UniProtKB/TrEMBL annotation:
Renumbered residue ranges of the record's region Disordered: 211-235
Domain of life of the native organism: Eukaryota
Gene3D superfamilies the record matches: 2.70.50.70
Stretch forming the signal peptide: 1-18
Name of the protein in question: Lytic polysaccharide monooxygenase
Compositional bias per record (Polar residues), positions renumbered to this chain: 211-225
UniProtKB keywords: Signal
Lineage of source species: Eukaryota, Fungi, Dikarya, Ascomycota, Pezizomycotina
Length: 235
């Protein structure tokens, strides 16, 4: 029989609360989401995706999309600027993050914004939806590739509603939603990895990208584009 000391129990509890998670918009199964009944709440939302890849995407919680506990938590308008909020304690010296949208219940994704470096070293991050973001119900995701520590991918998802924009603001020619890159995926047994000690340099971050890094590295292995990335190359 295995016995646990109070210190070890507290240590395990601290690990469960470590790392970072999406606290707004309210994610599927999140303790912050008032639509989620207590028995369904995941108190380890801060944990990374399984390295074997079995719970990509969304930790598997996209199955709640059409259920009361997974109903839409916010309505946004195409072309509008909005914030996401992150909570947690272990930032692993930052890294790189993306936010993406899916209209087919997490089968395919389009990147809305990328941050290369310093993410998630602050709690609030702003992004602007493309002017022609399709109207309807969608899944919003926040993904994070940590700079220091085990090679992991973090992902939380939320049900959001998008309203069509009535007018168009001047933006980049590369703004159209359908021209956006697919979500970057690595460290989930897909042949694609990231290099420790450097901020991930996304192969295709999209037109809306914030760069704040003193040292980046491209992915390792064969990633979204099918291109082989050489590990030694750093920027």
């Amino acid at each position: 029989m295995k016995f646990f000391t109070l210190a070890s129990v507290l240590g395990l509890a601290a690990m469960a609360q470590a790392h970072m998670e999406l606290s707004w918009p309210y994610a599927f199964r999140s303790k912050f989401n008032p639509n989620v009944p207590e028995p369904l709440r995941d108190y380890s939302m801060t944990s990374p995706l399984l390295q074997a890849g079995g719970n990509y995407p969304c930790k598997g919680y996209q199955v709640d999309f059409n259920k009361p506990e997974g109903k839409s938590v916010v309505t946004w308008t195409a072309g509008g600027t909005y914030n996401l909020t992150l909570s947690g304690t272990a930032t692993h010296e930052g890294g790189s993050c993306q936010v993406s949208l899916s209209y087919d219940q997490a089968k395919t994704w389009k990147v809305v914004h990328s941050w290369i470096g310093q993410c998630p070293l602050k709690p609030t991050w702003s992004f602007t939806l493309p002017n022609d973001t399709p109207a309807g119900d969608a899944i919003f995701s926040w993904t994070w590739f940590n700079k220091i520590g085990n090679r992991e991918m973090y992902m939380n998802c939320a049900h959001v509603t998008i309203k069509a924009r009535t007018g168009f603001a001047a933006r980049s020619p590369s703004d159209p939603y359908n021209g956006r890159p697919s979500q970057f995926v690595a460290n989930v047994n897909n042949g694609c990895g990231t290099l420790e000690g450097k901020d991930l340099l996304f192969p295709n971050p999209g037109p809306d990208t914030d760069f704040s890094s003193s040292g980046t590295a491209p992915p390792t292995g064969t990633c979204n584009t099918g291109k082989r990335f050489a590990q030694p190359l750093t920027v």
